[in-house]
From TrEMBL:
Annotated Pfam families: Aminotran_3
GO molecular function, one term: adenosylmethionine-8-amino-7-oxononanoate transaminase activity
Classification via HAMAP family: BioA (MF_00834)
Name recorded for this polypeptide: Adenosylmethionine-8-amino-7-oxononanoate aminotransferase
Gene (UniProt): bioA
Quaternary state and interactors: Homodimer.
UniProt similarity note: Belongs to the class-III pyridoxal-phosphate-dependent aminotransferase family. BioA subfamily.
Record-listed N6-(pyridoxal phosphate)lysine modification sites: 289
Class of enzymatic activity (EC top level): transferase
Subcellular location: Cytoplasm
Chain residues that bind pyridoxal 5'-phosphate: 117-118, 260, 322-323
Binding site for substrate: 57, 150, 289, 321, 413
Superkingdom of the source species: Bacteria
Organism expressing this protein natively: Micrococcoides hystricis
């Protein structure tokens, strides 16, 4: 390694942009190593080894330097690391597409491999427009989305993010001609495993949604949403029955239903896909983030045969083709990651590994974060599957909370009024205790009074 932590921090300063940041803001820590669920950090205040509460933004579900994923990457490197996908194919991509179709809600049968989550959503939106055009519905140019949603940072995806709170309001001049349904009523999965939801609020929401979609039905190509859990838009959990209502509305008005499972996919909400909380299939589904276990950038868009056939019957090619489409290294690691998740748990035959892991996360996060509810500055503590959220009554003092969390052995990256964690699935009960204790301590010291 060239350069130690403080030196790297100095050289980074003013040179590199970090996500959603000014150059001046910089960062406080350099990563000098990562192994299992822990990151080695080096900062002005010294060296720290911390449990990664963020799983590198939902992605590192098997932790770092996982032997199986490392081996898959090495093996593919020995074969070939990249070839163009235009006019060529290869085993890692075909195997991955077959696996995804097997795991996805029944009916999704075709796969487009994209190089990031945002791009997979772009492709989904493009597919919806092409689908409507080939059905003689080319006037359908707009999309319906949920308030509070987040679907990426590229231009078309920005326009289906929440138009006010969605991080992109300064680009409103680029046109947000889309239709936004109110945020669905909040719901919570209780410890008995059933949903606490407000039936009256849901009925009121349904009335509004029906009116809005009805009023714009002829202009709309598709409805797009994050099923059950809105991530970057506020770590917000809503009533699964909303998905059933959206399915009905889409069918009634000839719209495609697009589910963005980029954050929720691969077990994070306690079902393999969040869609599995209800018995419906979207027309189009996007996955990303945890697809390669956090090793390489890769995403996928899947759709039903009914949709794909409309394009193919018209001889209409799906007009997208990134240079690094179907990258073999990424596909090989994704295949290893999906195998790891879905294999039988060695200690619990008949249960897949991810199910066992999610049960441990659920319990660890629920019990570990509960004490935070006592602090005066905490509005709510909530948890769904492998996601735990402490929502404050005020904006998080990010620098202070982060520093105290690191000193107590946890990496978190709060935003707005939220201190939240979605740790690697391979966390032990002890790792989870360390993580949640650090979060509770940091929130208590900074926002407890
Ligand atoms: C992260 C995310 C995206 C964007 O994925 P990138 O890989 O960052 O482009 C889109 N939708 C949702 C729900 C996400 O969480």
């Amino acid at each position: 390694m060239t350069g130690h932590g403080p030196d790297i921090l100095n050289r980074d300063s003013g040179l590199l942009w970090h996500p959603y940041s000014t150059l001046a803001a910089g960062v406080s820590y350099a990563v000098t190593g990562a192994e299992g669920v822990r990151l080695s950090l080096s900062g002005a205040d010294g060296e720290h080894t911390v449990v990664d509460g963020m799983a590198s933004w939902w992605s590192a579900v098997h932790g770092y330097r996982n032997p199986r994923l490392d081996a898959a990457a090495h093996a593919q490197l020995e074969d070939f690391s990249h070839v163009m996908f235009g006019g060529l194919t290869h085993a890692p991509a075909v195997e991955l597409a077959e696996k995804l179709i097997e795991l996805a809600p029944a009916g999704l049968q075709h796969v487009f491999l994209a190089d990031s989550g945002s791009i997979s959503v772009e492709v989904a939106l493009k597919l919806a427009l092409q689908y409507q055009y080939e059905r003689g519905q080319g006037h359908r140019q707009r999309f319906a989305a949920l308030r509070g949603g987040y679907h990426g940072d590229t231009f078309a995806t920005m326009r289906v993010c929440d138009p006010v709170d969605g991080m992109h309001s300064q680009f409103a001049g680029q046109g947000t001609d889309n239709v936004f349904l109110p945020r669905p009523p909040a719901a919570a999965l209780n410890s008995a495993g059933t949903w606490d939801a407000d039936a009256d609020a849901l009925a009121a929401w349904e009335t509004q949604a029906r009116e809005l979609i009805g009023a714009h039905a002829q202009e709309l190509a598709a409805i797009v949403c994050e099923p059950i859990l809105q991530g970057a838009g506020g770590m917000y959990v809503y009533d699964p029955h909303v998905l059933v209502i959206l399915r009905e509305l889409a069918d009634e008005h000839g719209l495609l239903l697009i589910f963005d499972e980029i954050a929720t996919g691969f077990g994070r909400t306690g079902r393999f896909f969040a869609t599995h909380w209800v018995d419906i299939t979207p027309d189009v589904m996007c996955v990303g983030k945890a697809l390669t276990g956090g090793y390489l950038t890769l995403a996928a868009m899947m759709c039903t045969s009914e949709v794909a056939q409309v394009l193919d019957d018209s001889g209409s090619p799906l007009m997208h083709g990134p240079t690094f489409m179907g990258n073999p290294l990424a596909c090989a690691v994704a295949n290893a990651s999906l195998s790891l998740l879905t294999e039988d748990d060695p200690e619990h035959p008949g249960q897949q590994r991810w199910q066992q892991q999610l049960q441990r996360l659920q319990t660890g996060l629920r019990e570990g974060l509960a004490p935070a509810a006592e602090f005066s500055g905490v509005r709510q503590v909530r948890q769904l599957g492998g996601v735990g959220v402490v929502q404050l009554t005020e904006p998080v003092r990010v620098a202070e909370v982060t520093k105290i969390a690191v000193e107590n052995g946890a990496w978190v990256r709060p935003f707005r009024d939220l201190v939240y964690v979605m740790p690697p699935y391979v966390c032990s009960s002890e790792d989870l205790a360390q993580l949640t204790r650090a979060v509770v301590t940091a929130v208590g010291e900074v926002h407890g009074r």
